[in-house]
Design a protein that fits this description.
Blueprint (H helix, E strand, L loop, with lengths): L8 H6 L7 H9 L2 H20 L19 E2 L4 E4 L1 H13 L3 E5 L2 H19 L8 H6 L13 H13 L4 H21 L13 E6 L7 E4 H4 L5 H9 L7 H14 L4 E3 L1 H13 L5 E4 L4 E3 L7 H16 L3 H28 L8 H24 L6 H14 L2 H19 L2 H16 L9 H24 L6 H32 L4 H7 L5 H9 L1 H20 L4 H10 L27 H21 L4 H9 L7 H13 L21 H16 L7 H17 L10 H18 L13
Length: about 750
Amino acid sequence: MSFWRKHKRFERVASLELPPGQWERAWIGLRRRDVLGRIGLALLAAVTLCSIIHAWNPPFAFRTGYVPPRDIVATVKFNKYDPSATELARQKARAMARCVYALDAEPLVQLRGRLRATLAELTTAPTLDKLNPKIWKEFQLPAAKDAAPPTAKQQQEEFLKFRSAFTPKESLDRVENAIVEVFAPLESRGLLDKPNEQGNQQEIVVYPAGHPEKRQTVHVSDVQIGDGSEIHKSLRENPELSAVADRLFAWIQPRLATLAPTLTLDDQLTAKQQEEAKRSVKEVFTKYTEDSRLAEAGKPLDKEHIDLLRLEYDAAMSQRPPAKMAARSAALLGLIFVAMLLCGFYMRYRQRGPLTSVTRLMILLLLGMVVVALSRWFNLVGDWRAELVPVLLFGMTMAIVYRQELAMLLAGAAAIIVAMAIGNGLNEFLLLMGVTAAAILNLASIRNRSKLIYVGLFAGAVAFLLRLALGMVNDQPVNLSLCRDAVLGGLWAVAAGFIVLGLLPFVEHFFGVLTDLSLLELGDVAHPLLQELVRRAPSTYNHSITVGSIAEAAADSIHARGLLVRVGAYFHDIGKMLKPDYFIENQGPDDSRHEALAPAMSTLVIIAHIKDGADLARQHRLPQPIIDLIAQHHGTTRVEFFYDRATEQQQANPHGGEVDESTYRYPGPKPQTKEAAVLMLADAVESASRSLVDPTPARIESLVREIAEQRLHGSQFDESGLTLRELRTIEKSMVMSLISIYHGRIKYPEPKAG
């Protein structure tokens, strides 16, 4: 049996495995746990944003001052509360409420008692002569017009006839009972001059004094005595009194007219009765049907129009079927989630800053949600036109924290979501994005505090012009309302510049970033650490200053942050101040502390300046980007001088053991940014150039190229993102800087003696 089997062609072809394609690589990447976690956060943020903007309903898009090009008509039936009609109806009900009176029947009881006493006295007189004339006079009927006064005989006859109705005593008792019956209605209802003008003029409520629970409703005509015709009628209709009704009424009428009212208005109960009547009136609504005109074409909307349109909108939204609400929510959720994924793909391949940690991503998503919520709130609470401010602040903050390209992308995504939340469509998006882009494009660097104010002023001018232009494009007349909106937009943009200026220190601290303004303040040579470096290691300080100028020019040549590199160079060797005499630039020609040390020990001393420098930076609260430059400016390079010495000693003493190369390497990490890579090269070439005896341009160029190649082949730039083209550009810049430092000088003749 042969050990070598001949493979068929299709087997050889099938055994060939090609690298995964683009979609396969994407699928593999999506299955990673960290990627799935970040996608889950984005989905959660999208759901939250849909909840914030009420994605299930279209937004209310009308504003005061907007001039509709056509009539706006209702799409559904709805009712509008009419406050004036409601108040009128309530006031009418209040005026019709019955007034409440307390009844004191005692004056009527006393009047009835006086009448009984008078009648009793009258019955005791057998003849008219025996009676007090005043008493009989009170019972006299009014004389007819042009009638002769009665004679004495006639009066005697009339008296006897009147007296006979009350005699004997049983007749008097029956008359008295009849009078009680006549007075009973008056005593139960009371007497009133005229009703209260603020209440019902037809009916009142009466209760016995001290017993408000025993209330009864009576007609005003029943308690107003007037001419007494009702009393007179009651007297005539009573069988016991019909014969003497006229004379009894003649005695009662004048006394009723002068009798004090027995009904007293109860202000407290009356007010309560009126308030109850007022509250009983339901609200009055104006009814609108479908196709009712809500606003007229060509006329600007005022607050009343907006309130009416808001009622129609609320009624329409309350009648939306759940299927439509769910469909719109799903569509918006998909759009927002896709927008987030696109931003994530851009960050994955262009700028990973927000994706480097879950915390950074959560902060970014939270900021986005706050921006959308604030913009929607500003749009709802009033006619401020301030929805621009949160988006503008977000864009400017992202431009400060990250690069302008990413800031534009994130601000664009926020502007799209805000435009969908507010409901003004493309016009709102163009306004938000245009003003934010104008601010972001002017935030390449912040080297002074007035820069943010100028950015705000420029953004304000853009906002003013954009608002006017978009209004005219939307067929809005150039009137006072449009100019007011444009001015408000400009003022809010200017205010955003001042707000960012005030928030700048907090933004830098929270996100751990450094603006050029902070770097300029940090790079002041009066900084305590730099002053201490000058005092302890002046040569190291001079080296740092020179490295800073070389590195800044090189970083600027590849459009990196030159100012950050320069300030980082000032502090990159501050760790040397703890043991300055162990570093060659601070030693004399014949004074080397390393002669008495083993190469490994010398290496430890040299390497320690990295850790010491980082510790000093943290102790003095230097920003993290500066600390990173201090820790990365040597990467994991080898301390060649002491490694070579150790190798020589090992070769001279073969029994001394092998040299461990890792002992002679810096702990790293390797440069993580282009700025750190530039600082590494600048530090190396500046130190090496000092050893050149004749620093000609050719020798300088050769030295720079050699050092760059060593770092490149030593994999020191693998994690920095530096490209070969950028590396060559950096080399050229450093060569020019070193040539300018070591340029030839005229040799002046020595002064002659005498």
